[in-house]
Amino acid sequence: MCNLYRMTKTTDEVAKWFAAVNELGGANFGEEVFPGYPGAVVADGAVRQMTWGFPLVMKGKSGQPPKPKPVNNARTDKLDSFFWRYSFEERRCLIPVTAWAEAEGPSGGKTRSWLSRPDAEMFAVAGVWRTSDEWGDCYSMVMTDAAGRAAEVHTRMPVLLAEGEWGTWTGGSPDEAKALCRPWAGELTLDRTGVPWSGRGQVSLL
């Protein structure tokens, strides 16, 4: 499960990499993206800003309004559920990533372990998106079973897409897109650090 990722490239670099229109101009984001915060995605042929996580409205305490929870990961085996189905069938996107992090270690002492592709300085993670009343346009990562180095740190990992699969993910049929939701077969680099894990806000996977 991914609750933190890096995007160290500018929006101009993202647009060039994915042959997309840069709707954000010179605007850029922080290099680390957390659930509930804005990130850059490639949707409908353009680089756009969206919030990472679909809002899930939770019951508030007595006298308090409910606060949405960002559901930032979508399990492959749940894409047919009501929560994800229409976004998966109609609104798939590419999430530009340079590395993603998993938490390792004992409770209260977890540290960041980063995973990346040694053959690509930036790569695409499969995503779905929709427009919400709470946060406007928002997106979520699609997750599958972990493999290779990723399996050393977690049971799940993001669906990584090879360049030749980008168009199938965004424009293919739901069946064609679902066939891409498999563990990454290529090499991965694992960088275990001593940096304390410190997530922001609430995170979730459905």
Radius of gyration: 16 Å
Order of helices and strands: EHEEEEEEHEEEEEEEHHEE
Give the oligomer, counting copies of the same chain as homo and different chains as hetero.
single chain
- Poorly predicted parts: none
The number of distinct β-strands equals: 16
Shape: globular
Largest sheet: 11 strands, mixed
- Fraction of residues in helix: 10-25%
CATH superfamily: SOS response associated peptidase-like
CATH architecture label: Alpha-Beta Complex
Secondary-structure topology with pairs:
Blueprint: E1 5-6, H1 11-17, E2 21-22, E3 32-33, E4 38-43, E5 46-52, E6 54-57, E7 68-75, H2 82-90, E8 92-97, E9 99-104, E10 111-116, E11 123-132, E12 136-145, E13 156-158, E14 160-161, H3 166-171, H4 174-178, E15 189-196, E16 204-205
Parallel strand pairs: 2-5, 5-12, 7-12, 7-16
Antiparallel strand pairs: 1-3, 1-9, 4-5, 6-7, 8-11, 9-10, 10-15, 11-12, 11-14, 12-13
Describe this structure in words.
This protein has 206 residues and is mainly beta. It has a single domain, classed as SOS response associated peptidase-like (hypothetical protein yedk fold, Alpha-Beta Complex), CATH 3.90.1680.10. Helix content is 13%, strand content 41%. The strands form 2 sheets. Strands 2, 4, 5, 6, 7, 8, 11, 12, 13, 14 and 16 form an 11-stranded mixed sheet that branches. Strands 3-1-9-10-15 form a 5-stranded antiparallel sheet, with no helix packed on it. A hairpin with a 2-residue loop joins strand 4 and strand 5. The chain is globular, with a radius of gyration of 16 Å. The termini are close together. The model has no long low-confidence stretch (mean pLDDT 92).
